[in-house]
Amino acid sequence: MNSRSLMLSVGARFVRTLTAARTRAGEFPGRNQTLSFLGPEPTGEAARTFHVREKRKLSARLREFFVHSPALGRTVGVRVLLPGRPSEVADVIYLFHGGGDDFRSWTDLGAAEQLTADSPYLVVMPDAGAASYSRHVIGAAGAEATLDWPTFHTVELPAFIADRYSVNPERSGALLAGLSMGGYGAMKYAAQHPDRYCAAAAFSCPLDPLSAVPLFDIIALREGGAAKSLFGDPKRDLAEWQANSPMSLAPNLAGTDLWFTAGSGTPHADDEDEDHVDVLEATVNHHGLKFHERLSELGIAHTWSPRPTGLHNWFAWQRELAEWLAALDDPARTPTAGHPAGTDAATGAGTSAAGADRAGLRDAGLRDSGVSGRGVSDGAAFTYVTGEPVFSVHGWDVAISRRRAQLVTFAEVTAASFTLNGAGTFRVRTPALYHPGQRYRIAISSPLAENVYDLAADADGRLELTGRMAGALHDPIVPGKRTRHFRTWGQDELTTVSITPVEAPVTAARADATSTRGAAPSTTVPAPEPRRAH
Prior knowledge:
Strands 1-2-3-5-4-8-9-10-11 form a nine-stranded mixed sheet, with helices on both faces. It has helices spanning 3-25, 105-108, 112-115, 149-164, 181-192, 213-222, 238-243, 279-298, 314-328, 351-363, 508-516; strands at 51-57, 62-69, 74-81, 92-96, 122-126, 135-138, 145-148, 174-179, 199-203, 257-262, 303-306, 382-386, 390-393, 396-401, 408-413, 417-421, 425-429, 439-445, 450-456, 464-468, 494-501. Helix 1 (3-25) crosses helix 6 (213-222). The radius of gyration is 26 Å and the shape is globular. It is of the alpha+beta class and 534 residues long. It is built from eleven helices and 21 strands.
């Protein structure tokens, strides 16, 4: 049996196992399996607005909502657990389900309500459909529909939660976790939005999609698409697979509190009914090991906790959720959330380095944002990897015009310089790191040419830069092996951009006045003092 057939059979067996688990538990509310009681989906203006269609109080802490999502074009369910230890403002854990489950699974099968009875977190458990945690176009040509799960999970849902509950709006107040495909979604969202989420936990998860292509084909089929409709062909559309892989996006996770675990696939003492080796759990355990090695190579702090036993089941996931929650509350633990790799969050080491960064900004004539403890916001260096042509991260807005998908590295980004790889043209709008009205010299070095020009910061202290990267070749008239290199030409080429303040030139009238007074003629005046934010 080849590897593809093996993974397909394992996936089918996994779905059957979950169905049997629900039947044995007797807890999954079969009468609520459909949304038919809500009637037809909204149309017109209502279909373009996120809104609650139904809400229920299931227990003292558990709430259930049915919400219409414009990003999905349909109604889905969300369960919310109120904090076990109430406070005026709560941090939020977004807890994701796996393939074959739904938004009820963590409370019906995973004991989430009991495990968080003494927890200070608001726990949000949204639906994720077949659990692709990706943007998926399904349907026949001319009648396609887009299921935009990332927008629902990372944009619409947080806005809904913030509007309804008193929650911490900062990055430090948003955490992600999930089991199986839900853990893949948690780790991927954390990597795609390192400025939004401070922590991510993954229990028994496929973290390297390129090593589990058949599994993602199963997800695509369950969601109503065709095989390879999720990210395309792994060879031809490699950049799309990389753009959705925590393994490829790992550099973005520096400064995120990471926790991931998996069992070995051999039965645990609690698994009395099982006497076989779980191939799926053994596979995701290998994914976890590879992810651990990748993060270690990058010098990114993390917690990898492989288990000597454990299957791909709820017994393991209940234990893992309980251990992660305990670790979050452990004062002896030194998480990395919100801190650069290599600093100690408990002792505050690295504070002097942040101060040095701000001093460097002042010496360079750049603006100090005055926000303590957030080095990136103050202009400290960061690197961001993405497959999106348009993205925003840490206040930087970037748009790249390109002919083909490619993995882009926005690297060594500071207020003084940055680099971009790839072909095409770019437009970058900076955060408010500069002095309004002051001029800056922009120097762009790319494989095409050297370009230098001056630009004044706007009233908010932002700059908007444009430039050319490597040249993008046209599609070949006759595609084939001889022109295959056209697909990737220029993607590894590096473009470097530097930003330096320019001393303000003296006007002609002022120069004449200086000469009249007998002073020596001067062509420049000192640059203005650095502006401080209050």
